[in-house]
Design brief:
- The protein is an alpha/beta fold.
- It has one domain: Protein-Tyrosine Phosphatase, Chain A (Alpha-Beta Complex), CATH 3.90.190.
- The protein contains six helices and five strands.
- It is globular, with a radius of gyration of 14 Å.
C-alpha cells in the first residue's frame, strides 16, 4: 500500500529496508545533512537544508517559500506506487509538517482538518513546524485553514524522538 512514512533520522535505514520507499525527503540543517542512503536512487531524494525554527529571524536557514515549492514539486512527481519516506532529525516537527503539506496537496482543499486530526491520531508526538505550515497555507491558497487545523490539534506529547508514522493517501484510511 502506498503511503507517506515519517521517521527520525535514526530510523531511516530500518524503514528503507522494511518498507522500500521509492522516494525520500530529508529536512535537516546544513551540518546534519546526509548523502542519499542505500536503497534509494539519488534522483529520488530531495534534500532540503532547513533549520527547525518557527520564526525566520531565528536562523540563517529557516524554512522558506522556495523549500515549500521544492517539496510540492517533488511530491507531485512521486507516482505513489510505493511509499515516500519523509524524515528530519527527530521526526517531530519538519517531517510531520512536510507530510501534512503533501497530504493537503494530494487530498485537496477542504481536507485540512481531517488530515490534521488523522496526523494527531497516528502521531501523538507530532508538532508540525508552524513556519512551514504558514508558508504552505499561503502557497496552496488555503486561506488559513491549514494553520487553523494544525493549531487545533495542539503541540502533542513531548518526546525526544518520534516513532515511525504511516499515513495512507486515502482520506477514508487516515
Amino acid at each position: 500500500m502506498s503511503m507517506i512514512l515519517v521517521t527520525p533520522l535514526s530510523a531511516i535505514a530500518d524503514t528503507i529496508r522494511s518498507h522500500r520507499p521509492s522516494h525520500l525527503i530529508t529536512l535537516l540543517s546544513r551540518e546534519h545533512m546526509i548523502d542519499t542512503p542505500k536503497g534509494v536512487a539519488s534522483d529520488r531524494h530531495l534534500r532540503l537544508t532547513v533549520d527547525d525554527v518557527a520564526d525566520p529571524f531565528l536562523s540563517e536557514e529557516p524554512p522558506a517559500v522556495e523549500h515549500i515549492d521544492q517539496l510540492l514539486e517533488f511530491g507531485r512527481g512521486w507516482p505513489a506506487a510505493d511509499p515516500i519516506l519523509v524524515h528530519c532529525w527527530a521526526g517531530i516537527s519538519r517531517s510531520t509538517a512536510a507530510a501534512y503539506i503533501l497530504l493537503c496537496d494530494r487530498l485537496g482543499s477542504g481536507a485540512e482538518q481531517d488530515i490534521a486530526r488523522a496526523l494527531r491520531y497516528r502521531a501523538p508526538h507530532a508538532y508540525p513546524n508552524p513556519l512551514m505550515i504558514r508558508l504552505a497555507d499561503h502557497r496552496l491558497a488555503r486561506r488559513g485553514r491549514m494553520i487553523q487545523a494544525v493549531q487545533s490539534i495542539g503541540r502533542g506529547s513531548i518526546v525526544a524522538l518520534g516513532e515511525r508514522v504511516e499515513l495512507p493517501l486515502a482520506l477514508e484510511e487516515l
